[in-house]
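queue> pop job 88
queue> type: inverse folding (structure -> sequence)
queue> payload:
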């Protein structure tokens, strides 16, 4: 059975100690600790175990100097209060730690000027990579990052002229399966609660909803398509006004996590019973959606997978900057719980 040699504790542990402990070359240790995927998995695990056993701490300053890059990734998101993005950042960070990187979290709060400032900071500080969910499909500009040679992965939202790596949800399918579920239950008067225009996730989910309704020969009436800011309070007010109006919808589809929370609260405040009097389908499997009664029927995104794939892509591009870009569409999942029922 292979065992780690003991290393003297009267001096800092060096990469040569890790190589000796793992029984591999210094080059192999370097590749593993830099996140390379070309090392045999058995050897890679042996190197990681040896690094832990010897308590090896990479010299990030020296490594950054050799690469002329800081061992830092920026993760730029549009709303840090949204649990979707906190889960995304957590997934990225798990990969970052394993590959010797730190993560700087940047919250644009849906402001283009903030986004531009964070992009400029990533370039000025020569960061090793950027994962970004853009503020605007049409107006966000990632070309300075690419011009600076900084590996960049777009997640969650498209950006108009970006040809690099992207890890997105199949948002058209997400909107479609939400509405198809309600149609199968007999609902025909469906309110769509969406975010502002110019956000690709919103527009694609709306397209999916429209397609599902069109297939059922049901038009999406303008009064049933309600846009708000992507904030819970605005969503709550919009839904409360709709369900207390003269023609109450049969069901509500909310297009993201905060809108789902606002829709749930708005229906609750109106005094309507869910799902006896109105059904609700949301998006994003946030913790609260399983804790309330009734629990929320929703379309879940594989957010941990999205963050992990994005971070692994940064590592892959750092190892070989010439690899072809990938454009992945992840599958949404309909989770049926207690807020939907057949129309009465």
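queue> result:
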């Amino acid at each position: 059975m292979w065992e780690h040699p003991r290393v003297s504790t009267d001096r800092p542990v060096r990469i040569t100690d890790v190589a000796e402990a793992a029984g591999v070359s210094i080059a192999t240790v370097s590749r593993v600790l830099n996140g390379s995927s070309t090392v045999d998995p058995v050897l890679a695990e042996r190197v990681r175990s040896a690094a832990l056993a010897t308590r090896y701490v990479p010299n990030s300053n020296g490594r950054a100097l050799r690469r002329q890059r800081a061992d830092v990734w920026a993760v730029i998101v549009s709303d840090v209060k949204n649990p979707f993005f906190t889960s995304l950042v957590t997934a990225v960070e798990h990969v970052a730690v394993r590959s010797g990187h730190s993560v700087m979290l940047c919250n644009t709060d849906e402001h283009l000027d903030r986004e531009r400032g964070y992009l400029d900071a990533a370039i000025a500080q020569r960061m090793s990579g950027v994962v970004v969910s853009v503020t605007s499909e049409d107006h966000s500009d990632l070309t300075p990052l690419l011009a600076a040679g900084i590996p960049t992965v777009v997640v969650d939202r498209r950006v108009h002229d970006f040809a690099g790596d992207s890890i997105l949800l199949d948002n058209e399918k997400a909107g479609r399966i939400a509405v198809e579920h309600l149609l199968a239950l007999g609902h025909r008067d469906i309110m769509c609660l969406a975010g502002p225009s110019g956000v690709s996730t919103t527009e694609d989910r709306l397209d999916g909803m429209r397609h599902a309704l069109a297939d059922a020969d049901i038009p999406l009436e303008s009064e049933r398509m309600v846009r708000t800011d992507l904030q819970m309070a605005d969503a709550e007010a919009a839904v409360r006004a709709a369900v207390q109006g003269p023609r109450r919808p049969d069901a509500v589809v909310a297009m993201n996590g905060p809108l789902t929370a606002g829709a749930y609260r708005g229906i609750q405040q109106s005094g309507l019973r869910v799902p006896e009097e109105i059904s609700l389908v949301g998006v994003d499997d946030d913790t609260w959606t399983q804790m309330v009664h009734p629990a929320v029927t929703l379309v879940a995104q594989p957010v941990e997978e999205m963050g992990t794939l994005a971070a692994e892509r940064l590592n892959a591009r750092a190892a070989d900057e010439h690899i072809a870009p990938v454009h992945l569409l992840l599958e949404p999942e309909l989770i049926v719980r207690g807020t939907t029922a057949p129309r009465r």
